[in-house]
Amino acid sequence: MKFQDLYQATKRRASVVIDSVTGKVVAVGTGLSVMAGNAMAAVDPLITTAITDGTADGKEIAGGLLVFAVAVGIVLYIKRKAG
User: Fold this and answer.
1) Which of 8, 20, 54, 56 lies in the 20 to 30 Å Cα band around 27?
2) Is it the case that residue 26 has pLDDT exceeding 80?
3) Model-level pTM?
């Protein structure tokens, strides 16, 4: 058997293995996402409220950090132009 023939045969086998593994990964991922969707349906309303409040707080903090970063950038820009 020539090296080229051996290479092609190995390549075909690897392709079949990768295809079967990819199919299994997709099936497991789909199953997990369906299970996660069901699990999230039974969350206590207090937890949902806490998550919503936390998200709002996080957005406020992120907005403040953005304003701070822009202010620092403006100050550095002014310093560079003045210097």
Assistant:
1) 8
2) no
3) 0.44
Q: Considering only CA atoms, which of 12, 45, 49 is closest in space to residue 4? A: 12
- Of the chain, the percentage scoring pLDDT greater than 90 comes to 27
Provide the domain limits for residue 65.
43-83
- Which of 55, 51, 53, 54 minimizes the C-alpha distance to 43? 51
Q: Under the phi-then-psi rule, with left for phi > 0, alpha for psi from -120 to 50, and beta for the rest, what region is 23?
A: alpha
Q: Are residues 22 and 10 in the same domain?
A: yes
Distance CA 59, CA 66 (A): 10
- In one-letter notation, the amino acid at residue 76 is L
Residue-by-residue DSSP string for the chain: --HHHHHHHHHHHHHHHHHHHHHHHHHHHHHHHHHHHHHHTT--HHHHHHHHHHHHHHHHHHHHHHHHHHHHHHHHHHHHHH-
Confidence of residue 7 (pLDDT cuts 50, 70, 90): confident
